């Protein structure tokens, strides 16, 4: 009886560790196959051979058949944080190489979940300011160098607003729509003050920093990999994000139609 109890406690510990690692990877925007591969690798290296898992963007199910244990964890927030995905992957590789124990892996995953690795907000805003004119060059054949500073400033300020809204609200797609409205209004007014600026160039460059490119790529990867449920869910989320961005720009143009 004591041996069975120890075995059950150990299996519960393995399940908890695998689910925590999988949840963190989905929150970081990882593909489904990578999440499942990491969870199964942790289970195998923990000595559990008969493990199964099923992953969706909103929840993870895992079962250890040998012990008849099944647990589920809910994923409430999702973002694009490849640093978080890489950190969890690195911990799973250290566990596979026997550099850390299961207890240490569990503790370090807990630390990662408490202090999620991310770039400072000021650095993200600067990155958006640099990326906006760069994307303008990439997507627009006909552009003027005078649009560069405007695209950089509007892109950086808009991204700062986007981060602020996301921090204080849990309503999905609201941050994208409000930011797009603000971006459209400020761009149109700026181009009205400085007639040499081109609205299309600035809008395209600034808006592309918010387009869910990684989410669309991951959705296609899931679909092509046979994870149809996750692929369709991610595709729907990416499309709704794009609709929120486009709708926000449309509202801004409608409001200021007489100014243009």
Automatic annotation (TrEMBL):
Name of one Pfam family that matches: ThrE
Transmembrane intervals: 119-139, 145-165, 177-195, 240-259
GO BP terms: succinate transport
One of the record's GO molecular function terms: transmembrane transporter activity
Bilayer disposition of the protein: Multi-pass membrane protein
First-listed, main subcellular location of the protein, grouped into a coarse class: membrane
GO terms under cellular component: plasma membrane
Domain Threonine/serine exporter-like N-terminal: 16-255
Subcellular location, record wording: Cell membrane
Keywords: Cell membrane, Membrane, Transmembrane, Transmembrane helix
Family of this protein: Belongs to the ThrE exporter (TC 2.A.79) family.
Protein known as: Membrane protein
């Amino acid at each position: 009886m004591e041996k069975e109890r120890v075995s059950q406690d150990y299996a519960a510990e393995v399940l908890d560790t695998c689910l925590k690692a999988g949840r963190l990877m989905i929150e970081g925007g990882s593909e489904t196959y990578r999440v499942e591969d990491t969870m199964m690798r942790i289970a195998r290296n923990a000595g559990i051979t008969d493990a199964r898992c099923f992953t969706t963007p909103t929840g993870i199910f895992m079962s250890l058949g040998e012990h008849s244990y099944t647990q589920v964890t809910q994923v409430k927030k999702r973002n694009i944080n490849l640093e978080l995905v890489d950190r969890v992957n690195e911990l799973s590789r250290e566990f596979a190489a026997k550099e850390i124990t299961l207890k240490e892996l569990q503790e370090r995953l807990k630390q990662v979940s408490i202090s999620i690795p991310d770039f400072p907000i000021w650095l993200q805003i600067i990155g958006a300011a640099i990326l906006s004119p760069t994307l303008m060059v990439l997507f627009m054949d006909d552009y003027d160098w005078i649009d560069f500073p405007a695209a950089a400033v509007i892109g950086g300020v808009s991204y700062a607003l986007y981060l602020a809204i996301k921090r204080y609200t849990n309503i999905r797609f609201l941050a994208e729509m409000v930011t797009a409205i603000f971006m459209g209004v400020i761009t149109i007014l700026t181009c009205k003050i400085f007639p040499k600026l081109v609205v299309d160039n600035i809008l395209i460059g600034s808006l592309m920093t918010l387009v869910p490119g990684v989410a669309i790529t991951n959705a296609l990867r899931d679909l092509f990999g046979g994870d149809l449920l996750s692929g369709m869910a991610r595709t729907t989320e990416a499309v709704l994000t794009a609709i929120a961005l486009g709708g926000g720009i449309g509202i801004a143009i409608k409001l200021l139609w007489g100014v243009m």
